[in-house]
Amino acid sequence: MQIQARHRWRYARHWDFFRRWMRNPRTVAAVAPSSRELAQRMVDELPAGARRVIELGPGTGVMTRLLLARGLGPDGLLAVELDPALHARLQARFPQLRVLHGDARRLDALARGFVAPGELDAVVSSLGLLGMDEAGRGAVLAAAFALLRAQGCFVQFTYGARSPVSAAQLRGLGLQVRRGAFVLRNLPPATVYVYTRRQDGAPR
Ligand SMILES: C[S@@+](CC[C@H](N)C(=O)[O-])C[C@H]1O[C@@H](n2cnc3c(N)ncnc32)[C@H](O)[C@@H]1O
């Protein structure tokens, strides 16, 4: 009975997410919520001992749940969601968590009061970076790296065959990228990428 209720809830969540994607494919950027496998691979990329994390585009909260389960308390996690309905549902699902309704491109302003510049351990992003223009991607990354500590990282997944941020844009921002796990069990399959500051002192 309990299992049936869980299946019904999951079905409703997937159907609702799909309807939101039909209405706004560029913003929602996926036909289904992330799989648990993808969420786990994203969370696995957090630096050891990470205590302050921001989640961008949490959607239905698949990754949010794992981030909280990993030991980040409500004081250690801030979630930023643009879609008003998804935001409201997420806040209802995690009433103790700070879930902001806002645009990740304005992260600098949104994160005030949560973390000081240079003190954030990681950003976990489900944003559809491929659907954004270069200026949008640049705004998200610049705002995130202004908050991240020197060794902090920006964890992103994409459905594309390569990093959603070009090598030229990464150079301009002083960043480097490492390819993480490829997750077949996701709709569609996805690859994790981890962005960090360039450590080689190369000119920007
Ligand atoms: C691929 S979906 C999220 C998948 C999520 N991991 C899940 O399992 O539900 C991308 C999410 O990013 C949100 N989003 C898109 N652009 C955004 C922006 N500029 N700022 C904040 N959230 C944004 C969308 O509303 C959507 O919830």
TrEMBL record:
Extract the signal peptide range: none
Residue ranges annotated for the Ribosomal RNA adenine methylase transferase N-terminal domain, each copy included? 38-188
Which molecular function terms from Gene Ontology are attached? RNA binding; rRNA (adenine-N6,N6-)-dimethyltransferase activity
Q: Which SUPFAM superfamilies match?
A: S-adenosyl-L-methionine-dependent methyltransferases
Q: Which UniProt keywords apply?
A: Methyltransferase, RNA-binding, S-adenosyl-L-methionine, Transferase
Listed name of the protein: Methyltransferase domain-containing protein
Q: Which InterPro entries match?
A: KsgA/Erm (IPR001737), Methyltransf_25 (IPR041698), rRNA_Ade_Mease_Trfase_CS (IPR020596), rRNA_Ade_methylase_Trfase_N (IPR020598), SAM-dependent_MTases_sf (IPR029063)
Q: Which domain of life is it from?
A: Bacteria
